Amino acid sequence: MEHNKDGYTNDSPGSEERDDAAGSSTRDIAEREPEGPPPGKPVKKQGNELLEWIKALAIAGILVFVIRWLLLSPFIVDGPSMQPNFWNRERIIVNKIIYDIRAPKRGEVIVFHVPEEKRDFIKRVIGVPGDTVKVDGDTVYINGKPIEEKYLKSAYEEAHANGEKYNYRSDGSFPNTKFPDGVVPEGTVFVMGDNRSNSEDSRMIGYIPQSRIVGRADLIFWPLSDFSFVKH
Predict the structure, then answer these.
(1) What is the structure's pLDDT at 7?
(2) In the chain, which end has fewer C-beta atoms inside a 10 angstrom radius, N or C?
(3) Rounded distance, CA 146 to CA 164, Å?
(4) Are strands 72-76 and 9-10 parallel, antiparallel or unpaired?
(5) Catalytic option among 81, 96, 199, 202
(6) Would residue 153 show up in a list of annotated catalytic residues for this protein?
(7) Does residue 73 have an active-site annotation?
(8) pLDDT per position as a tens digit, 136-167
(9) Are strands 91-95 and 208-209 parallel, antiparallel or unpaired?
(10) Per 3-state DSSP, what percentage of the chain is helix, strand, and coil (rounded to 5)?
(11) How far separated are the first and last CA of the chain, in Å rounded?
């Protein structure tokens, strides 16, 4: 204890007491430091990250399977029957689920199985069940009324400007003469290729059962220069 000149006393700790206090404080800080893994003990972090990667890859694989086999499917256009809107060797994406939700509509481009040919065709829906379809030159009639085919407007105009018909063969015959006009039966559709003079479609092979339809063409993805959504 020290006396100052005013007579008051100061209970200031001595040097030994200060050293003890500092040492105690240092020990307290050291005791409060977080404990790390003991030396030589393996860290589990890498194992957890590997497990998360495996889970992510498994989920991605399942999604690819679902999308590829149940929802969407790639398809290669084979031949000129859908020109000028689809070209030979173009790659497209087919929506496989849409017709599980609703029936095909006129104007939609579909891919369907042709067992007799052992391959798939791509054509455009012209008539649906109950429709009366009649093809007369470059005019298509549905239930007695001519339809406007916007997807072939430029092709028609070009042919007519040259004094020709678009739905015409060089031998002078129309390709629809092999199949009679009539009412589209229930559960089927009437289809034609956009390249009317060079297309094997319902005018030759008849009505297409809806059970054979793979899906609707929704996207052209290759070549990249042709990348576009299909207009129906």
Answers:
(1) 42
(2) N
(3) 19
(4) unpaired
(5) 81
(6) no
(7) no
(8) 889 999 999 999 999 999 999 999 999 888 98
(9) unpaired
(10) 35, 25, 40
(11) 101
